[in-house]
Design a protein that fits this description.
Blueprint (H helix, E strand, L loop, with lengths): L1 E6 L7 H8 L5 E4 L8 E5 L2 E5 L12 E4 L4 E2 L1 H13 L8 E4 L3 E2 L2 H14 L11 H9 L6 H4 L2 H23 L6 H15 L3 E2 L1 H10 L4 E4 L25 H6 L8 E7 L2 E3 L11 H10 L12 E3 L1 E2 H11 L3 E5 L9 E10 L2 E3 L6 H6 L1 E8 L16 H14 L2 E6 L7 E3 L1
Helix pairs in contact: 3-4
Bound molecules: guanosine-5'-diphosphate, 6-O-phosphoryl inosine monophosphate and magnesium ion.
The site of 6-O-phosphoryl inosine monophosphate (IMO) has 23 residues, from helix 4.
């Protein structure tokens, strides 16, 4: 079974937790896009791990974790993450591989991300400032450097020098920023290259060999469908294809090798950073859910904006990703609310729309149309069987499944492994 786990909202749906659980039955866990903008949380017996670049399967010592070619890798962040995990007793050696085609984040990418965000002021995207956008931009502009390029001792210096000359000119003339000395960047990155060369692999080769041997591969999405560069709320998106369709380009495994696609949705909606958010709560509920759901970014610590479950958006995700099943997380966070709402359509210029619109201006102006249901008083966080869930919670979940036209396979009621209900 080769399965894709994809975020079906604006990220932070709880993908890390779901991957960690499903990883038990997998042989390979593979990231296919994004970079260290991601923050995937796994809690094991009260110990919390936040993975940024390394797949969430790494906590299972007998699995192989791969960072695919579609990922952008900041070697400084990677080395730090490896060291942090090792210090916590996690084994990392032959069980981690990185595609030699993965693009590398350089200091000028991080600086450009910051300068552009600062320059935009109130119109900023609210990026994680990790250099993700500028690195993907260079990839597409064909001026990026990949892992295999920084490992190529004969040519790395020449290519870096050419690129750095242009970057420094842009930094100076457009942003009045001092720029980088070739020797500093070259020495630092040559050192990084030596440290990470043991992980380099041909990702497509390793994975297609695994497919031949009928191994189980789990593809780990980062971010979410509404942050996808093509299908997200552009320009308030990330710079990669977070959707299930990103898997083939990001790993070299053909779409006809994929057996199952599971979308992860939160029982409500959140987003970090700027951009339209039709079902966003007003202040009072915002504070309650933020606190109860501990909705603070796993990467930047920023408070996450919270709102009601938006089925227009989630249905759009279900279609684009071809979801076979959904995992609904954080149901427990809604415990104790008198009523719960689900957005089922948008109203725009007096008309009802049920398809997710493309334009930011429309999204900023639409009004969500809600169905309102009675909530449940009971604490769901200790429940382990679906039928034991309060009836109102079951009805809420069933309505979500009906609206999305997708069956629920997992309900999560807490961050621990054991707080998981298989349906
Ligand atoms: P990801 O980026 O999709 O992996 O999600 P994050 O790790 O950024 O955010 C999800 C947060 O919710 C983490 O702090 C998880 O530990 C936590 N979490 C996951 N599932 C549940 C759940 O069912 N209930 C509660 N209360 N927390 C959860
Ligand atoms: P995980 O994998 C939530 C958001 C940023 C910003 C936008 C662009 O943990 O779900 P970027 O740095 O990617 O250029 O920022 O995307 N963003 C995320 N939001 N979860 C994430 O990852 C995110 N990764 C990026 O907040 O709005
Ligand atoms: Mg996250």
């Amino acid at each position: 079974m080769n399965t894709i786990i994809v975020g079906a909202q604006w990220g932070d749906e709880g993908k890390g937790k779901i991957i960690d659980i499903l990883a038990e039955k997998a042989d390979y866990i593979v990231r296919y896009q994004g970079g260290n903008n991601a923050g995937h949380t796994v809690v094991i017996e009260e110990e919390k791990f936040i993975l940024h670049l390394i797949p969430s399967g790494i906590l299972h010592p007998d699995k192989v974790c791969i960072i695919g070619n579609g990922v952008v890798v900041d070697p400084q962040a990677l080395i730090r993450e490896i060291e942090d995990l090792k210090n916590k007793g996690i084994k990392i050696n032959k069980n981690l591989l990185i595609s030699n085609r993965a693009h590398i984040i350089f200091p000028y990418h991080r600086v450009l991300d910051n300068l552009r965000e600062d320059r935009k002021g109130r119109k900023s995207i609210g990026t994680t400032r990790r250099g993700i956008g500028p690195c993907y931009a260079d990839k597409v502009a064909r001026i990026g450097l990949r892992l295999c390029d920084i490992l190529d001792e004969q040519n790395f210096a020449k290519r870096l020098e050419e690129i750095l000359n242009e970057k420094n000119e842009i930094l100076d003339k457009v942003y009045n920023f001092k720029g980088f000395k070739f020797k500093d960047v070259y020495d630092t990155y040559s050192e990084y290259a030596q440290k990470i060369k043991e992980y380099a692999c041909d990702c497509h080769y390793v994975l297609n060999e695994a497919v031949k041997k009928d191994k189980n591969i789990l593809f780990e999405g980062a971010q979410g469908t509404l942050l996808d560069i093509d299908y997200g709320t552009y320009p308030y998106v990330t710079s990669s294809n977070a959707i299930a369709g990103g898997v083939s380009a990001g790993t070299g495994v053909s779409p006809n090798r994929i057996d199952k696609i599971i979308g992860v949705v939160k029982a409500y909606t959140t987003r970090v950073g700027e951009g339209p958010f039709p079902t966003e709560f007003s202040t009072e509920l915002m504070t309650i859910i933020q606190e109860k759901g501990e909705e603070f970014g796993a990467t930047t610590g920023r408070p996450r904006r919270c709102g009601w479950f938006d089925s227009v958006l989630a249905k759009y995700s279900a279609i684009i990703n071809g979801l076979d099943k959904i995992a609904v997380t954080k149901l427990d966070v809604l415990d104790g609310l008198k009523t719960v709402k689900i957005c089922t359509a948008y109203r725009y210029n007096g008309e009802l729309i049920k398809d997710f619109p493309a334009g930011t201006e429309i999204l900023n102006k639409i009004e969500p149309v809600y169905e309102e249901y009675p909530g449940w008083e009971e604490d769901t966080s200790r429940i382990s069987e679906y039928k034991q869930l309060p009836l109102n919670a079951q009805r809420y979940l069933e309505r979500i499944a009906e609206l999305l036209g997708t069956k629920i396979s997992i309900v999560s009621v807490g961050s621990e492994r054991k707080q998981t209900i298989f349906v």
